[in-house]
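Slide 14.
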Amino acid sequence: MSKIFKIFILILISAQINAQNTIWFKDVSFGKVFIADTRSPIIKLEIGKLNKISPYYYNTDVSKRLFIEPHFGYEIPLVSFSKNNYGFYFDFPGGAVTLVDMFEEKTAPVINTDYWFGTEIKIIKRLPENKFIKNIGLNVLPLFHESTHLGDEFSLHGYYEAPDFKRVNISYEAWKVSVILNDPDTLSGNVLSLKAGIQNLWTLKDGYYFTDSLEVKGDEVPKSTKTFEWYFLLNYQRSKGFLCSDKFVNIFSAELNNRSKFSYEKAISETRVWSYNLYFGWEYKISDKVFRNVGFFLRYYAGLNPHGQFRNTGGYQFTGFSVVLM
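Slide 15: predicted structure.
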């Protein structure tokens, strides 16, 4: 970890020496995540229907009522530099996602909470003379940590009522790199943006999770070994044409990712699963002086359950409505 910190400091010093403009503690308009990014610092409040959670959840009729999925996120800016058509930015992003069975009649339990935080480096190269590709961006999270917490009602019921229930602690440190073409936050009009990225752990031998012998009732839980992840995103925003304007920007955002489907049983092999995350709606640009604009979107997710230790469950679907602070 000390090597990562030294590299971060060297990049910071090098960028400042070569920069024309240096701005401290102020957000910039490039390198933002797409709306469909599964892990992001965007604030969202989502309500929708899902088809399943886990065979150990004591409320089996989950498909018959709505669930709440709040996303909290932040980006703490450190410093940005600019020179000619280049921009550099350093910040500290993080966030949390909670799945809540809000309309369950007894306790409205929290099912799961995932939270993450890290460091980030953003670089953009502007190409004003290019007709199709207006800029190329690079986002690097040299180090981030994620942990998850299973809800208390879920854990207690599973531990005492389900003989083969296991509580697994998702906790790891990883790095992430992505390349962006036509960063959508830097351009106006009708813009097609693309992103591709990879992610892996810093300590491969530890895997994505660990267990306590009491919480798994003495069973041996195999480590995750398929740690590499990759993802592709598309973002199409329109401010010119039918049902859109400079104030009301129409956006379609999609993510396709390939992740490990965990296995907590020795007899079941760990596999890889494709998942996709889709958003369609409108962003209302309130004012340039406002820190975040607001958006209203329909969302559909299908594939691997993205919540905590439920990442051993495929065939998960969520369909709902999302209010987004962008």
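Speaker note: Residues 188 and 239 are 7 Å apart (CA to CA).
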